[in-house]
Design a protein that fits this description.
heterotrimer, A alpha/beta (430), B alpha/beta (307), C alpha/beta (188), A: Urease, subunit C, domain 1, TIM Barrel, nine-stranded mixed β-sheet, five-stranded parallel β-sheet, B: 307 residues, four-stranded parallel β-sheet, 15% strand
């Protein structure tokens, strides 16, 4: 198939493009980028007028719950959510059942995703067997089957010694260790940020220190082992300061942030105990969120991820203290960034493309996607004026547990090409 | 009429609400404490379910007695007999009971926010009988009643709340209610028992009982929740008693007219010495008596407000 | 919204006093004296009326009957739509067992207040007898209740309000009929 995307404003800082262009796609590749291209025989034209065309968006932190928890999400339903949100690539976390700790599990996810055919799934493998923090997973086997990175996401690796072993072992491969930082001796029973909200609502706190102490530890292990370290879903101002300092030293340390930690805080949790606001790490103080928004602009935070965490209705429609942690995010991530950061003039389109496409793709060690001839045609077309009302019906994924239900947002992906195939067509998943 | 439909927390109550509850409770006093027939037909025909998802004897019996004295029909469901422990969700439990047509739920729960969740699943009125570490508003009302009976007023009183604040729903509801009524509250606890953010209560927090005891009109000793002590925040009963226990020596330093309260059940010899619990300043049994009066008032006012 | 307008003054202070004097005599006559007699006023206007009657009985017989106040808030059958802050409390500082009790109220209308008062009284003990004295009986009974002593029978309609005023709760003694008119176009 051949497509001509006409008249879109193309943004790709990798090739210095920030202007209106026509882009011609044949089979899986971009074959021409020029000011004006005439549609040849058999070329389908996609009107890009008034829209932005960017390299396909990447979310390097999602939970597709497959295998093991298919009642929450599957690779097929998660892929639909990803395409609906404008993504061409996602990295799935290994806390499945069984845990993704062997090459066979990696292969299962890649094959299943190919059959679904809506998004490139780049599975992460676990650092330790069963995410138990006790012994190494078959990391080399998983690299050979296509694992994109390694993480025990959902838990911190409690033993510093075990984490040292993990990072030292991974350092022989060109892969990043993604650290979920949580010292469980400090966060035990914690269900909400320590501080005013915990006092007001009468629940055990999950203190910032529980995260920061492992960020510090893992940065030191990075220095010792040389293994590339990526801090997952950073949520505190102080944690970000440590990442900044490590970067300034030249250590291979990066980090990511979620839209909910950027745009929500613990003061949003009111007496109704809305469990869609229960996260791990928890929503922090307003001042933390402000520091994170600054960090995404000044370059100290490398990418936006959603930590897309689907849960069934009965797992959220219950008392806060026993509700499951997490919010879905794939379908609101781009609209939230556009509404709060880009259309307010705080963030450039260039920076948006860096944090939502270029940087995560590099961290997952995937081949760069550039808007130039010869690159793979993973492309996202965005209408900055499209209005979205976030209701349960808006979501095409299996679960509806969004922290942003009820929000009205402006700006969303309308079309996505994944390896030259249309996966989102005028806002509807193919 | 109260300004709230349900009694979930004390932070939603105005000073007028609290005064109305205490005044109504006062009018039940001659009925409960002065008559042979300690009962009125005010809530005849109303159905109240006491849903106690966490074991409790005192609070449950106090509510049951209050219900009987108002002539309501009530049933009590306990954690051991309810299907919540069998894996049924809270929403299912409430909808099931609700289908039997009840007018009011009195809820005691291990998890914070449970009463609020129940309001989302029923049209009945909900009274919070204590939820997790969050709130215990009916305890706060009986405490205020007891204190007001002694001093004749609440504004300007200096009250110390002493003990396991971190695990205490009693503190969570009493401190804000006292502030609303114009009292001055000081929180006293070892650092490992202190609340995360005392500014939420608008209170000072200290770990030196001896520094403040002489200034207090009311010394409110909290029960150390032995069953909730995870990770042992204090080394021993003995040491706690020595540092924070209300001993005869400390009692002797209190103001002449000052009183001692405790929500019960007491750990004698831990937070309060046996002789102190029984001394002339102790209002602990008055509190128990006030519990029935104030709970009658709350149920009467909330159900009476229903059209 | 309702608007009320004065239609007639049924009794002035003098008329009320004469009626109370007669009722006092009737109570004494019926009970063959004032021994073992108690007057219990239903809050609020029954209370000063009971005191007036006690004064008169004392003047006639030389014995002052015991006086009590009865609050019926918790005994009403319509409380769910008429709840008000409870400001009054029953005060009967003597045992009522074996006593001839005269309930005193200002207006006897549907009989529901008296029904509530009887229940409230019975929860306090077991009187030898209970009699009922009212300043005005305006008819329209909804329960099988009648007064033993009546200051004045005042036939009235549902669109009227019969009001008893009495010092010190009011600034004068009188009985008046007020018309109640619904506002034009009323939508209630």
């Amino acid at each position: 198939m051949a497509y001509l995307i006409k008249g879109a404003h193309v943004v790709d800082p990798q090739v210095g493009l920030d202007d209106v262009r026509d882009v011609l796609v044949e089979e899986k590749q971009i074959v021409e980028v020029a000011e004006s291209i005439d549609a040849g025989e058999g070329v389908e034209v996609i009107d890009g007028t008034g829209k932005y065309l960017v390299p396909g968006l990447v979310d390097m932190h999602v939970h597709f719950r497959d295998p093991g928890f298919e009642y929450k999400e599957t690779i097929a339903t998660g892929s639909r959510a990803a395409a609906h949100g404008g993504f061409t690539d996602v990295a799935t976390m290994p806390n499945t059942d069984p845990v993704t700790d062997t090459g066979a599990e990696i292969r299962y996810q890649i094959d299943t995703a190919r059959r679904a055919g809506l998004v490139h799934v780049r599975p992460m493998g676990s650092l330790t067997r069963g995410e138990k923090g006790e012994s190494l997973s078959e990391i080399g086997d998983m690299v050979m089957e296509g694992a994109s990175a390694f993480s025990d996401d959902g838990h911190g690796v409690q033993s510093a010694g075990m984490m040292k072993t993990c990072m030292a072992y991974v350092s022989q491969f060109d892969r990043v260790v993604c650290a979920h930082c949580e010292d469980e001796s400090l966060t035990k029973n914690g269900v909400i940020n320590s501080g005013r909200a915990a006092t007001r609502l009468g629940m055990f706190g999950w203190p910032a220190l529980g995260e920061e102490i492992e960020i510090w530890r893992d940065i030191e292990l990075c220095r010792m082992t040389g293994c590339a370290l990526h801090i997952c879903h950073i949520s505190t101002a102080k944690g970000l300061e440590m990442v900044k300092a490590a970067k300034a030293e030249g250590l291979p340390v990066t980090c990511e942030v979620t839209p909910h930690h950027l745009f929500l805080c613990d003061e949003d949790i009111d007496d109704t105990y809305n469990t869609n606001l229960k996260m791990n790490p928890p929503l922090r103080k307003a001042s933390d969120a402000a520091a994170l928004r600054e960090g995404i602009l000044d370059g100290s935070i490398d990418c936006i991820v959603t930590d897309h965490a689907p849960h069934a209705k009965h797992e959220k429609d219950c008392e806060w203290e026993i509700a499951f942690f997490g919010t879905i995010g794939l379908e609101t991530s781009l609209p939230l960034m556009l509404t709060n950061m880009v259309s307010t003039g705080k963030m450039s389109w260039d920076r948006l493309v860096e944090v939502m496409a270029v940087n995560p793709r590099n961290l997952l060690r995937c081949k760069p996607v550039k808007i130039e001839a010869g690159s793979q045609a993973d492309l996202t077309l965005i209408d900055p004026d499209k209005e979205i009302e976030v209701t349960e019906d808006y979501f095409v994924g299996k679960s509806k547990n969004s922290a942003f239900l009820g929000y009205k947002l402006k700006g969303a992906a309308t079309d996505v090409l994944m390896a030259g195939k249309r996966t989102l067509i005028d806002g509807v998943v193919a | 009429m109260l300004s709230v439909k349900h009694l979930i927390d004390t932070t939603s109550l105005t000073a007028d609400d609290i005064t109305q509850i205490l005044d109504t409770a006062k009018s039940f006093d001659p009925i409960v404490n002065g008559r042979n027939i300690k009962k009125v037909p005010a809530l005849r025909g109303r159905t109240i379910v006491n849903l106690f998802l966490e074991p409790s004897t005192r609070t449950l019996k106090s509510f049951e007695l209050a219900e009987k004295r108002l002539s309501a029909d009530s049933i009590s469901m306990g954690g051991a007999t309810s299907s919540v422990v069998k894996g049924e969700s809270l929403a299912d439990t409430i909808q099931t009971i609700d289908a039997m047509k009840v007018d009011m739920f009195v809820v005691r729960a291990r998890l914070a926010g449970t009463p609020q969740k129940i309001t989302e699943n029923t049209d009945a009125i909900v009274i919070n009988g204590g939820d997790g570490k969050h709130q215990h508003p009916t305890q706060a009302m009986l405490d205020l009643y007891t204190i007001r009976e002694h001093f004749g007023h609440l504004d300007g009183l200096k009250v110390a709340i002493v003990g396991d604040l971190a695990h205490s729903r009693v503190c969570g509801s009493l401190a804000p209610a006292l502030k609303t009524m114009g009292a001055d509250v000081t929180l006293v606890a070892p650092p490992t028992f202190q609340v995360g953010d005392p500014s939420w209560f608008g209170c000072n927090q200290t770990n030196h009982l001896d520094d403040v005891i002489e200034d207090m009109d009311v010394v409110y000793m909290l029960r150390v929740q032995l069953e909730r002590m995870e990770g042992a925040a204090i080394p021993s009963r003995r040491e706690y008693n020595r540092l924070y226990g209300l001993s005869l020596e400390r009692e002797a330093r209190m103001k002449d007219n000052a009183i001692i309260c405790h929500p019960g059940p007491m750990n004698r010899g831990m937070e309060i010495d046996a002789e102190v619990a029984d001394c002339a300043r102790s209002r602990i049994l008055n509190q128990v008596n006030a519990g029935v009066l104030t709970r009658m008032a709350e149920m009467y006012l909330l159900l009476g407000g229903e059209e | 919204m309702e608007q009320a307008s004065l239609k007639a003054v049924i009794m002035d202070a003098q008329g009320m006093d004469r009626a109370l004097t007669r009722v006092a005599h009737e109570i004494i006559e019926h009970n063959e004296g004032a021994e073992g007699l108690a007057l219990v006023g239903v809050l609020r206007r029954g209370v000063p009326l009971a005191e007036r009657l006690a004064d008169k009985i004392e003047a006639i017989e030389g014995i002052r009957p015991k006086i009590g106040k009865l609050d019926i808030s918790f005994y009403r059958d319509d409380f769910s739509s008429h709840i008000a802050p409870v400001l009054h409390t029953t005060e009967i500082m003597f045992p009522i067992d074996g006593v001839d009790v005269v309930l005193v109220d200002d207006v006897l209308y549907t009989g529901r207040t008296v029904r509530s008062a009887l229940d409230a009284l019975m929860d306090l003990g077991r009187p030898k007898s209970v009699q009922l004295a009212v300043m005005v009986d305006r008819g329209h009974r909804e329960l099988p209740i009648r007064a033993d002593y009546v200051g004045k029978n005042v036939p009235s309609s549902h669109e009227e309000d019969v009001r008893v005023s009495i010092v010190p709760l009011d600034d004068k003694d009188c009985v008046e009929i007020w018309g109640i008119e619904k506002n034009a176009g009323g939508t209630e």
